[in-house]
From TrEMBL:
It comes from the Eukaryota. Residues 100-167 form the SUI1 domain. This is Density-regulated protein. Residues 79-91 have a biased composition (Basic residues). It comes from Cryptotermes secundus.
């Protein structure tokens, strides 16, 4: 019980503004940082955009930059950049191979979602792509990260036909099947 102290930072941490405010989402009632793990993230975003535009902007930025690195210092830097360029613009990847990856991830006990990454390596607008998938499969689809779309449903196999059909510049061979992934 008492060695909780060992792994836990004591005192104020650099880069964090005190007191820490935890904001809860009006859609899923989780702290807004966790909304992205909620199946209805799209609705959460709408709620957030409407009710907490500032936080919405911040969360969007976090999602965009989340490449594993954390830490308070980073956080502070991000905050200072606010008010700069367009917020939702997907970062273009200038280097690296062009490849789209698709995988399946569990959602609840019986359902799965399909995760598509790499579309922006082909300069595809993720918002347009997400909307396209949503319409095509008649299910929820949302942009969930820098270069990631989550489709609510197991449509992985269909994507191998549908992606090259919609975007002829993507060859079926440049779509990699990552199989089943944990999220
Ligand atoms: Zn939420």
């Amino acid at each position: 019980m008492t060695d909780l102290q060992n792994g836990f930072p004591l005192g104020p941490q650099p880069g964090i503004t005190y007191p820490i405010r935890v904001l809860y989402c009006g859609n899923c009632s989780l702290p807004i940082e966790y909304c992205e793990y909620y199946p209805e993230y799209e609705k959460c975003k709408l709620w957030l955009e409407r009710n907490m535009p500032t936080e919405f902007e911040r969360v969007m930025k976090l999602g965009e930059k989340e490449d594993g690195e954390g830490g308070g210092g980073e956080e502070e830097k991000k905050r200072q950049k606010r008010g700069g360029k367009g917020i939702m613009k997907a970062r273009k990847k200038e280097d690296g191979p062009k490849q789209v990856c698709v995988s399946r991830a569990p959602r609840g006990k019986k359902k799965s979602v399909t995760v598509v990454t790499g579309l922006s390596t082909f300069d595809i607008d993720l918002k347009v792509a997400s909307k396209f998938f949503g319409t095509k499969f008649a299910c929820g689809s949302s942009v969930t990260g820098d270069d990631e779309i989550v489709i609510q449903g197991d449509v992985k196999d269909e994507l191998f036909d549908i992606i090259p059909e919609k975007w002829p510049e993507i060859d079926e061979d440049s779509i990699e099947d990552l199989g089943d992934q944990k999220r």
